[in-house]
C-alpha cells in the first residue's frame, strides 16, 4: 500500500518524473547508507527488539506524512525527508528479520519456513495493494498512508512477543563495529556464488526500480488508470502467493540454480509496459513476475541460511542488500532524464533486457551451479 500511496501522493503535487525519482531515491539512499550498521546491530542485540524499534520509527514517519498529505500542507522536501526516515528504519528491520529464521526454525525445515513466511507476507500484500488502489482512487493517497502507519504499529506489537537471545560473546572478546563489519565482509566475499548473485541483482533491482516502480505509475496515469495499476501490483503479489505454494513443495538438490533461472521472468512486466500496456497482459506479466520472484527469493534465503554461520548472518544479509540496492537510487534519479531523452518505450525495453542478461550470467556461473540445498553450518541458537 505504501508504494502506491507515496508515488501517487507525489504525483498529486508534481507531474515531474524526475522529482518523483528524487523522492523514491531518498528512501533508497537512506536504506543503503544504514544497511551495514543495521546488520551489525541485528547481530549484537536480540533481533526482536531491533524489529520493534524499526517498526515504531516507520509508524511515526508514515503517520506524519499522512497528516501532511491529508491537510494539504505537504511539500517535496517533506516527502524527501520522511521517505529517507522510512528507508533508514527498513535498513535495520530487514537484516534482523531475515536472520531471525535460523534462530527459530530447524535446518531441515528452513526452505518450507521461508516459503511459508513469504506466503503470509504476500497474502497481506495482495490485500494491501488492492485496498491501496481503491483508497487512492476514491479517498486519496493520504488514507493509504494512514493505514500503512497503523500496520507498522501492529507489526511492532507482534514482534514484541518474539523471544530469541542475542549472540553470546564475552564482553572482553566483543569486537568493535569496524571489526564486526570486516568479519561480515570476509563471510560475504569468501563465497563466489554469494557476491556473484549480488552483483547480478545490482543491475536487476535497478532495472525494476526505474522501469516498473517509476515508469509504471507514469503509464498508469496516462494509459490504464490508477485503479488498474493497483490491480497490476495485486496480480504480482498473487503470483508471489502462488509461487510460495510451489516453493514449499520443490525438492531440488541445486536449489540456488533452480531459483536464479526464474529471474528471467522479471523481464515480462517492463516488456509488456513497453510494447502492449493492456490491463490483462500487464496483470498476466505481473503474476508471472511475482511467481518467479518467490522461486528465487526462497532459494536465495535458504542457501544463505544453510551456508553462512548464524552469528554473522545479519551482516551478510546487510552486505547482500547493500550490493543489491546500491544502484536503485541512481536508477530512480536518472530514469526520468533517460526516458525523456530516449523515450519511455526504449527505456522500458532496456529494463527488460537487464534481468534476461543477468539470468544468463548467473546460470553460467560454476559457483552458482555447485551450491547444494544442504546445511553446511550449525546456526547459532
From TrEMBL:
Segment forming the signal sequence: none
Q: Which GO terms describe its molecular function?
A: transmembrane transporter activity
Spell out the subcellular localization from the entry.
Cell membrane
Q: Give the bilayer topology.
A: Multi-pass membrane protein
Provide GO CC annotations from the record: plasma membrane
Name of the protein in question:
MFS family arabinose efflux permease
- InterPro entries found in the cross-reference section: MFS (IPR011701), MFS_dom (IPR020846), MFS_trans_sf (IPR036259)
Which Pfam family, any one of them, does this sequence belong to?
MFS_1
- Source species: Lentzea atacamensis
Record-annotated Major facilitator superfamily (MFS) profile domain positions: 1-381
Top-rank taxon, per record: Bacteria
Keywords on this record? Cell membrane, Membrane, Transmembrane, Transmembrane helix
CDD domains per UniProt: MFS_MefA_like (cd06173)
Amino acid at each position: 500500500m505504501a508504494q502506491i500511496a507515496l508515488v501517487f501522493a507525489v504525483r498529486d503535487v508534481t507531474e515531474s518524473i524526475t522529482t518523483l525519482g528524487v523522492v523514491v531515491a531518498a528512501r533508497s539512499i537512506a536504506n543503503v547508507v544504514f544497511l551495514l550498521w543495521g546488520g551489525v546491530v541485528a547481530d549484537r542485540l536480540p533481533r526482536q527488539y531491533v524489529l520493534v524499534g524499526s517498526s515504531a520509527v516507520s509508524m511515526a514517519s508514515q503517520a506524519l506524512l499522512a497528516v501532511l498529505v491529508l491537510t494539504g500542507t505537504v511539500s517535496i522536501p517533506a516527502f524527501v525527508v520522511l521517505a529517507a526516515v522510512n528507508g533508514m528504519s527498513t535498513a535495520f528491520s530487514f537484516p534482523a528479520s531475515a536472520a531471525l529464521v535460523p534462530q527459530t526454525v530447524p535446518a531441515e525445515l528452513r526452505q518450507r519456513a521461508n516459503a511459508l513466511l513469504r506466503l503470509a507476507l504476500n497474502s497481506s500484500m495482495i490485500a494491501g495493494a488492492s485496498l491501496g488502489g481503491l483508497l487512492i482512487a476514491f479517498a486519496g493517497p493520504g488514507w493509504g498512508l494512514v493505514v500503512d502507519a497503523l500496520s507498522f504499529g501492529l507489526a511492532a506489537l507482534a514482534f514484541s512477543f518474539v523471544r530469541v537471545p542475542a549472540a553470546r560473546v564475552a564482553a572482553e572478546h566483543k569486537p568493535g563495529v569496524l571489526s564486526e563489519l570486516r568479519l561480515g565482509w570476509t563471510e560475504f566475499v569468501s563465497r563466489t556464488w554469494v557476491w556473484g548473485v549480488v552483483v547480478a541483482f545490482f543491475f536487476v533491482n535497478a532495472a525494476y526500480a526505474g522501469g516498473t516502480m517509476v515508469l509504471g505509475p507514469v503509464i498508469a496515469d496516462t494509459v490504464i488508470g490508477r485503479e488498474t495499476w493497483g490491480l497490476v501490483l495485486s496480480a504480482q503479489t498473487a503470483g508471489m502467493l502462488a509461487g510460495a505454494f510451489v516453493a514449499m513443495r520443490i525438492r531440488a538438490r541445486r536449489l540456488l540454480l533452480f531459483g536464479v533461472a526464474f529471474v528471467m521472468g522479471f523481464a515480462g512486466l517492463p516488456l509488456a509496459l513497453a510494447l502492449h500496456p493492456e490491463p490483462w497482459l500487464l496483470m498476466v506479466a505481473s503474476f508471472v513476475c511475482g511467481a518467479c520472484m518467490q522461486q528465487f527469493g526462497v532459494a536465495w534465503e535458504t542457501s544463505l541460511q544453510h551456508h553462512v554461520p548464524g552469528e554473522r548472518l545479519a551482516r551478510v544479509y546487510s552486505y547482500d542488500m547493500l550490493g543489491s540496492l546500491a544502484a536503485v537510487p541512481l536508477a530512480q534519479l536518472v530514469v526520468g532524464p533517460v526516458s525523456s531523452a530516449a523515450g519511455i518505450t526504449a527505456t522500458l525495453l532496456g529494463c527488460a533486457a537487464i534481468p534476461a542478461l543477468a539470468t544468463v550470467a548467473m546460470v553460467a556461473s560454476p559457483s552458482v551451479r555447485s551450491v547444494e540445498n544442504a546445511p553446511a553450518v550449525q546456526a547459532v541458537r
